[in-house]
Amino acid sequence: MPIPTVAFRDERLPNGLRLLIAEDHLAPVVAINIWYAVGSKHEVAGKTGFAHLFEHVMFQGSRHVAKTEHFALVQSAGGTANATTWLDRTNYFETLPSHELELGLWLEADRMATLLDALSQDNLDNQRAVVKNEKRWSYDNQPYGSWVEKLLACCYPPDHPYHHPTIGSMEDLDAASLDDVRAFFRTWYAPDNAVLSIVGDVDPVRARAWVERYFGPIPASRGVPRLDARPLELSLGGETREVVPDRVPLPRIYLGFRAPAIPDVRLYALEIAAQVLAGGKGSRLHRRLVREERIAQDVALFVLPLVSGPSLVAGWATVRPESTPEAVEAALLAELARMAAEPISADELHRAQALVETEELAALQRVAERADRLSMWATLVGDPGEVNRQLERYLAVTAEDVRAVCADVLVAANRAVLTYVPAGESARPSASAPGEAATEAVAVEAR
Fold first, then answer.
1. Of 385, 261, 256, which Cα lies nearest the Cα of 314?
2. d(Cα 51, Cα 305) in Å, to the nearest integer?
3. What is the CATH code for 240-443?
């Protein structure tokens, strides 16, 4: 069966905006997706959380669009809109009836060009409060909510761009001035730091004309700063451990490992490994820890691909009330060691590849996902054509590829372990696996 491909047009406007257009007339809808090459990795000390704060500020109006009117206009036209922030980027997107494409393009262009006209101290204070409340709700007061922050801090040194999460710190958010936020926008929100993808029921000539009309007059930046990330070794160089007494109902073990960065092809083998280990109820970890030994409530393992340094493999297992963190960790580490010691079976490989293939094909059926992936690959590696090579690369992975990358990545010398325990219980570290000594043991009091 031939692998489907996404046909697209690729060009740059004179101001540097990269424009990607892919026709699909199956349904009368169109997706707009714009990626700005700015994420939390571009923030500097004392100004963390700015990228995510701007995700909120961008919906607070521009010269011709009133506060919150962006959502109202899209919804009244029968569409949806949203945005996300990550370590490597920020993106904004709409899905609309195809006859409303011009509206979506005008909205995106107006805030790229004139957001600062509407940015006031009141708007900044309002969205700062929203983000701080989100931090309290999703991180500070959520059981296990600090795991992302702690795992990033374990796996990346303080001077690395991935050391802090996208939400930033309360102190930095409080200290953000209107001038700081304006400078952040002028630095990063420019056409030559953006990729605009349009996918769906679209006339490319008309769409191109609208893009030229609305985005063309926006001037390029004076030069986007170059990110200067210190190269890191693939390995952490030792195991780190932290016990976190917190307001949690059950103990939970989190694991983190540095992994190859995008576009290293070993990432595809790691994704297959994650499917074998934790991809559904037939996976190794679920079968052993949840169904057979019944020592864990749930398990997860996944890859977070990153481009400016090592990626991250992360996962967790929640300890059942009648079990112990030591028993769960020992079983987790035994299964990871087995992945590194012997190739997976042909059946496991085929099952994992079938799961990935199903997910990839389902995703590519959606115009919004195709637009997002075109923008993603153009932003991260400079080549939107990567959208058509992903499935082929997953299907080319061999059992030995999986074993080899697990032997490099899922090992004690490259392991960070967080053990969450209910506050008031013993804060002793979980026992190391037989023959493995932890290089560091730290107990952190719950805030």
1. 256
2. 19
3. 3.30.830.10
- Tokens 């609208």 belong to which residue? 210
Close Cβ partners of 296 (under 8 Å, ≥ 6 residues apart): 289, 290, 317, 318, 319, 320, 323, 328, 331
Of 87, 110, 279, which is closest to residue 168 (Cα–Cα)?
87
Q: Which two tokens stand for residue 104?
A: 């979506």
Give 25's contacts (C-beta < 8 A, 6+ positions apart).
201
Are the C-beta atoms of residues 263 and 311 closer than 8 Å to each other?
A: no
If residue 324 lies in a helix (H) or strand (E), which one and from where to where?
Answer: none
- Asked if residue 263 has a cis previous peptide bond (ω within 30° of 0), the answer is yes
Q: How far is CA 302 from the centre of its chain?
A: 11
**What sign has the CA pseudo-torsion 112, 118, 120, 124?**
negative
Rounded Cα–Cα distance for residues 126 and 253 (Å): 37
How much is the pLDDT for 1? 59
Distance CA 155, CA 109 (A): 38
Distance, C-alpha 421 to centroid of its chain: 27
260 DSSP 8-state letter: P
From start to end of 279-340, where are the E strands?
296-304, 311-319
How would DSSP label each residue in 180-234? HHHHHHHHH-SGGGEEEEEEES--HHHHHHHHHHHHTTSPPPS-PPPP-PPP--S
- Blockwise average pLDDT, block size 10, the chain, 447 residues: 87 98 97 98 92 93 95 98 97 98 98 95 93 91 95 96 94 92 94 98 98 98 86 94 96 98 97 97 97 98 96 98 98 98 97 96 95 98 97 97 98 98 64 36 29
Residues of each domain in the chain carrying CATH 3.30.830.10: 9-215, 240-443
To 10 degrees, the CA torsion angle through 257, 263, 264, 270?
A: 50
Q: How far from chain centre, in Å, is Cα 198?
A: 22
Torsions phi, psi for 111 (to 5 deg) = -80, -25
Q: Among all chains, which residue has been given the structure tokens 């992936």?
A: 373
Please tell me the CATH code under which domain 9-215 is placed. Answer: 3.30.830.10
CA distances from 85 to 15, 54, 88, 119, 198 (A): 24, 9, 8, 20, 20
**Whose CA is closest to 56, among 132, 161, 149, 109?**
132
Amino acid 444: pLDDT:
29
